[in-house]
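Title: Comparing notes on inverse folding

I've been comparing how different people in this forum approach sequence design from structure. To keep things fair, I'm posting one structure and asking everyone to reply with a full sequence. Here's the target:
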C-alpha cells in the first residue's frame, strides 16, 4: 500500500502501525536500528526535530522504503546531481575563529 505523508504526525502513525503489526517492541526496534528507545518513541510521537538519517534507518529496519515522487522536469537535474555526488557537510567557521586558528601566538624569542 502506498500512502502520502503530509506531516511528521503522518509518518509517526506509519512507523507505529508497521512496528505493532510486525510484533516488534519499541526497545527492540531502537536496538536493531542503532537508536535510543527515547528517539524511537519521539519518532512514533511525531516529534518534528528528529534526525532524518536515523528515521531512515528505522524505516529500513521495518522494511518500509521511503520513496519520493519528483516532477518529471527534475529527473535530468537529479541525474546530474547523482554524478556529482553528495559532499559531506562541513561546519562553517567564523572569520574570527579562522584567524585564531591561522595565526600563531607570539613566541618568547620574537619579543627579544
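Reply #1:
Here's my take.
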Amino acid at each position: 500500500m502506498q500512502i502520502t505523508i503530509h506531516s511528521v504526525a503522518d509518518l509517526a502513525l506509519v512507523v507505529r502501525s508497521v512496528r505493532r503489526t510486525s510484533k516488534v517492541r519499541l526497545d527492540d526496534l531502537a536496538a536493531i536500528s542503532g537508536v535510543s528507545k527515547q528517539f524511537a518513541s519521539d519518532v512514533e510521537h511525531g516529534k518534528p526535530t528528529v534526525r532524518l538519517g536515523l528515521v531512515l534507518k528505522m524505516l529500513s529496519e521495518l522494511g518500509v522504503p521511503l520513496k519520493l515522487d519528483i516532477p518529471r522536469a527534475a529527473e535530468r537535474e537529479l541525474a546530474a546531481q547523482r554524478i556529482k555526488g553528495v559532499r559531506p557537510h562541513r561546519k562553517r567557521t567564523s572569520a574570527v575563529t579562522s584567524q585564531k586558528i591561522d595565526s600563531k601566538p607570539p613566541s618568547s624569542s620574537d619579543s627579544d
